[in-house]
Design brief:
By secondary structure, the protein is of the alpha/beta class. The chain is built from 13 helices and 7 strands.
Length: 305
Amino acid sequence: MPKRAPRYTAEGVAAWLAAGAREKDECVRNPDYLAVKFLGTKYYLISQFPPLVKLVLWCFQQVVPGGYYFHIARTKHIDVTRKHCLAEGLDQLVVLGAGYDSRAYRFRELLGKTKVFEVDHPGTQEYKKLRLARMYGTVPQWVTFVAMDFNKERLEIRLPQSGYDPGGKTFFIWEGVCMYISPAAVDMALSFVARHSGAGSSIVFDFLYRSVIEGTCDYYGAREAARYVARVGEPYVFGIEEGDAARFLEESGFELVSELGPEQLQKAYLIRGDGSLHGRVYGYTGIAHARVKSRPGSTGADKSG
C-alpha cells in the first residue's frame, strides 16, 4: 500500500493533540492549544462535538492502544525540555520533520532572539504556511521554513543555505520521525547534529524499542500499532535496543542527558489532579535528550563537511 501524504499524517497527530488540549483536568491537559488551528474540515468538525471526539478517541484506542496518552506526555515532556534548554541560552531552535509543530508560535515571546528553523516535506510545509497565514494575517517572519525532501537532499547543505549557523548553540526537536526512516537515515541526521552544531547543542527525540521492529515485542499496544502503521503504508523501520540508548548515542557523538520510558512518562505527565492515572502510554517507546559531546580542540562545530 502506498504511503499517505505527509500532510495527512501530520494532521492525524494534530487531531490527537487538539483533543488532548480540551481535557478538563489541567494536570493532564495537552498544552498544544494551537493544534486545532491546523485541522482540516473533517477533523475540525469532529473537534466541535465533545461526544463525537470521545467516540473517535475510543475507536483509536482500540486500534493503537496508548497512542492518545503518549502524545499528551510527549508534548509536555518536549515542552519542558525546550524550556530548560532555552533558560540555559540558545542561538537556534531547529525542528526536524516539523509537521504541525506549534512551539515556534506558542512560545514566540520566550524564544526572544533565538533563530527558529522548521525543516519538513514541501507539501506539508506549504499547507502549514497557508494555515499560519490565516492565523496571523501573513506567514510568520520569525521562522525560517526549510522545505526539504529527506530522501534527496542533505541537511548539511539545505540548512546552511537557509541561514543556519553550524557554530551556534542549537536545540533540535526530532519528534515522531526516526521510527519511520532507515537506520542509515537516522545515522545521517544524528551525524549532522553532532558535527554541525555549536558547543552545548542538544537533541530531543522519541524512539521505539528494536523488538517492535523485529516483531518480538509484547509490550502494551505494540502489536496493534505495528499492524496499523503497516496497513496505512508507514511501517516502523528503526528502533533502539531497550536499555541501549546511552551506548547508541555515545557511538553517535552524544552524551545522554535523560531518558524517559513509559512508566516515567506516565508518572511525570499523566497523573490527574485526584492522583489517578489518566491513561497508559505505549509500552514500547522512550524519549531521549542528548547533548553533543565536546571534541578536543573544537569550538563546537565541525565545518569540514
